[in-house]
C-alpha cells in the first residue's frame, strides 16, 4: 500500500485497536492469475507478540481453498469522507478523501476439525452477539453439526501490518480545524467519525 510518511502509523497498538473497532474486513487471496476477495467478520487476538486473525467462510465459497499455507491480505477499513478544497486557505487546492485503513498480511491455516470450528464459531458469536450463544447451544446437536459442515474455519498468523491514516496531516492546523468542523456537522456518522478520528490523533487547532 502506498503510504506517505506523514500518513504512516507505526504504533501496533493503534493498529490493533483500529482492527478490533472495524472487524468487518476484506480477505484477499491469489486465485490463479487474479485476486479473489471475501467480505467477512473476523476476530483479532494476541498471543505474545503474534497477532492471529480467525474467521470462517461458507464451504460453498471457494476462497478457503486459496488460504491454507498461502499468503493473504486482510483489509480493515474505517470511516472515510470527501474533503472539499473550499476548506483550505490556499485557493489553488484540489479535493481529496480522508480515510483510515489497516492492511494485515500473513499465512493462512485451515482449521478442519469440528472442535476447532466450534471454537471459532463460539468466539465469533460471543464477540458479535453474545445473547445468541445460549440459543445456539440449545439447538439439536444434529442441526449444529449440519451447520458446521457448511463452513470452513481458518486462522491467519499476521506477519506484517501497514497502517495508513490519511487525515489531512499535511495541512495547516487551521485547515485541519476547518475539515474537522465541516465533517463533524455532517449527519452521516460514517463521515462525522472521520472528524472524531482526527481529534483523537491530535489534529486541528484545539
CATH topology: Pnp Oxidase, Chain A
Name the strands of the widest sheet in spatial order. 2-1-5-6-7-4-3
Decide which structural class fits the backbone: alpha+beta
**Helical coverage, percent range:** 25-40%
The number of helical runs is 6
Quantity of strands, as a count? 7
CATH homologous superfamily assignment: Electron Transport, Fmn-binding Protein, Chain A
Secondary-structure element string: HEEEEEEHHHEHH
**Number of domain modules:** 1
Distance between the termini: 31 Å
Measured on Cα atoms, how large is the radius of gyration? Answer: 20 Å
Q: Quickly name the level 1 CATH class.
A: Mainly Beta
Biggest sheet: strands, sense, closure? Answer: 7 strands, antiparallel
- Mean pLDDT across residues: 95
Poorly predicted regions: none
At CATH's second level, what is the architecture? Roll
% residues in beta strands: 35-45%
Shape: elongated
Structure summarized in a few sentences:
The chain has one domain: Roll (Pnp Oxidase, Chain A), CATH 2.30.110.10. 32% of the residues lie in helices and 36% in strands. It has helices at 12-21, 114-128, 130-138, 141-148, 173-184, 189-200; strands at 24-31, 34-41, 43-47, 50-58, 71-83, 96-111, 151-166.
Structural descriptors:
single chain; 206 residues; alpha+beta; Pnp Oxidase, Chain A; seven-stranded antiparallel β-sheet; 6 helices
Any overview of this molecule?
The chain has 206 residues and is an alpha+beta fold. It has a single domain (5-114, 151-198), classed as Electron Transport, Fmn-binding Protein, Chain A (Pnp Oxidase, Chain A, Roll). Helices cover 32% and strands 36% of the residues. It contains six helices and seven strands. The chain has helices at 12-21, 114-128, 130-138, 141-148, 173-184, 189-200, and strands at 24-31, 34-41, 43-47, 50-58, 71-83, 96-111, 151-166. Strands 2-1-5-6-7-4-3 form a seven-stranded antiparallel sheet. Strand 1 (24-31) and strand 2 form a beta hairpin. Helix 2 crosses helix 3 (130-138). The two termini are 31 Å apart.
